[in-house]
């Protein structure tokens, strides 16, 4: 067992708090970090052997993160916003990549011919806190960071955070962070598109994501994964708290709350909503071009938004574990949920008062 003791992790967190106080940033990060219990971590490590540094819970909702989050939480909280920013906010595997491609394309003159990677065009704000420090970033990205930050260490400063900071306007920024972990003035300054997906399909997709991506390196089966899901022990959990935060902001004039299933049902209808919300003033013919461009078959064929082959090549993705852009359908959960799994998943849903009144579609 190579798991570092909770005592050591707590010492790191105390050191992080001390350093954050020295930074004298605009806002102090208001939430506490709580390392997961050593007994729980032992169980997690049996199925997630890469989490040797331990996991922690953040704030009153107990959002789960890797220990790297402590180094950058305050920077995310104080991320400098621009008036023309648009944030794509989701729980993981709820259509984030789909919406990134849609929003960026609509906000950039329906540019369907770019050869830039999606995460360069629409950067992932907190990707640094998910990355393994054993993996080197792309050389071109590292060169860009070093040119802007001479003498600084990307592992502590945040390479991907710098990509988001330096991205030219109008920025389209991806995040899986909930509202409570971002700057409280977010909606005073910028717009947010929140995309929700039903929890059963989200769980299935998240399972495959954890099997594919080496920074998660899940080695268990789906039944065991559902146990972690229902105990809110996966990164970014609790799902229902995240969803409830987004739903509570749905009537804010700077928030557009969309359902993944509605986008599948009638993409043109949802693109018209986005067109109004974003103020992009695209003609119907242009919206049809966007709709064609973001069909799952087309996105899956483009390396700019489906990095599976590149990820396997550089050792970030596992072979034979599917693709980053997978199926993009509603109802695939029926192929995974045995009566036993359905029983415990339903019990989890019923046990929570959060998000219980949010309408969910489980089949199209």
Describe this entry's structure for a reader.
Helix 4 crosses helix 14. The protein has 364 residues and is of the alpha/beta class. The chain is globular and about 55 Å long. Strand 2 and strand 3 form a beta hairpin. The strands form two sheets. Strands 5-4-6-7 form a four-stranded parallel sheet, with helices on both faces. The chain has a single domain, classed as Rossmann fold, CATH 3.40.50.300. Belongs to the sulfotransferase 1 family. Its EC number is 2.8.2.4. It is an enzyme of class 2 (transferase).
Could you give a quick summary of the protein structure above?
The protein is α/β, with parallel strands linked by helices and 364 residues long. The protein has one domain: P-loop containing nucleotide triphosphate hydrolases (Rossmann fold).
> Largest sheet, if any?
4 strands, parallel
Strand tally: 7
Strand residue percentage: 5-15%
- Strands of the widest sheet, in order across it, are 5-4-6-7
Q: Based on the structure given, which CATH architecture is correct?
A: 3-Layer(aba) Sandwich
How do the helices and strands follow one another from N- to C-terminus? Answer: HEHEEHEHHHHHEHEHHHEHHHHHH
Helix and strand content put the structural class at alpha/beta
**CATH topology category name:** Rossmann fold
Cα separation of the termini? 45 Å
The CATH homologous superfamily is named P-loop containing nucleotide triphosphate hydrolases
CATH class: Alpha Beta
Which term fits the overall shape?
globular
* Count of structural domains: 1
Q: What is the rounded Rg?
A: 20 Å
Runs in which pLDDT lies below 50 for 5 or more consecutive residues are: 1-25, 308-314
Q: Number of helical runs?
A: 18
EC number: 2.8.2.4
Pfam families: Sulfotransfer_1
Domain Sulfotransferase: 84-350
Protein name: Sulfotransferase (Sult)
């Amino acid at each position: 067992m190579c798991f570092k003791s909770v005592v050591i992790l707590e010492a790191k967190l105390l050191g992080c708090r001390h350093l954050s106080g020295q930074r004298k940033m605009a806002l102090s990060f208001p939430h506490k970090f709580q390392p997961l219990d050593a007994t729980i971590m032992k169980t997690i490590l049996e199925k997630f052997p890469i989490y040797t540094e331990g996991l922690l819970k953040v704030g009153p909702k107990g959002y789960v993160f890797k220990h790297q989050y402590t180094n950058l939480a305050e920077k995310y909280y104080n991320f400098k916003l621009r008036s023309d920013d648009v944030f794509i906010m989701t729980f993981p595997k709820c259509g984030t990549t789909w919406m990134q491609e849609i929003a960026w394309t609509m906000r950039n003159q329906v540019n369907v011919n770019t050869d830039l990677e999606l995460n360069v065009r629409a950067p992932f704000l907190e990707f640094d806190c998910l990355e393994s420090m054993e993996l080197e970033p792309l050389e071109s990205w590292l060169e860009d960071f070093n040119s802007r930050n001479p003498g600084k260490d990307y592992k502590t400063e945040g390479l991907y955070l710098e990509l988001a900071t330096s991205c030219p306007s109008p920025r389209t920024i991806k995040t899986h962070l909930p509202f409570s972990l971002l700057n409280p003035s977010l909606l005073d300054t910028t717009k947010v598109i929140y995309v929700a997906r039903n929890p059963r399909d989200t769980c299935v997709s998240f399972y495959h994501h954890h099997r594919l991506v080496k920074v998660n390196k899940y080695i268990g089966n789906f039944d065991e994964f559902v146990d972690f899901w229902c105990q809110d022990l996966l990164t970014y959990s609790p799902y229902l708290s995240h969803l409830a935060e987004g739903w509570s902001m749905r009537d804010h004039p700077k928030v557009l709350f969309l359902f993944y299933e509605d986008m599948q049902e009638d993409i043109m209808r949802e693109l018209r909503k986005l067109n109004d919300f974003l103020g992009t003033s695209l003609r119907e013919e242009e919206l049809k071009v966007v709709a064609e461009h973001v069909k799952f078959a087309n996105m899956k064929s483009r390396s700019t938004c489906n990095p599976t082959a590149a990820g396997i090549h550089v050792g970030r993705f596992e072979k034979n574990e599917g693709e980053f852009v997978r199926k993009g359908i509603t109802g695939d959960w029926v192929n995974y949920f045995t009566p036993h799994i359905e029983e415990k998943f339903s019990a989890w849903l019923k046990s929570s008062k959060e998000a219980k009144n949010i309408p969910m579609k489980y089949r199209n």
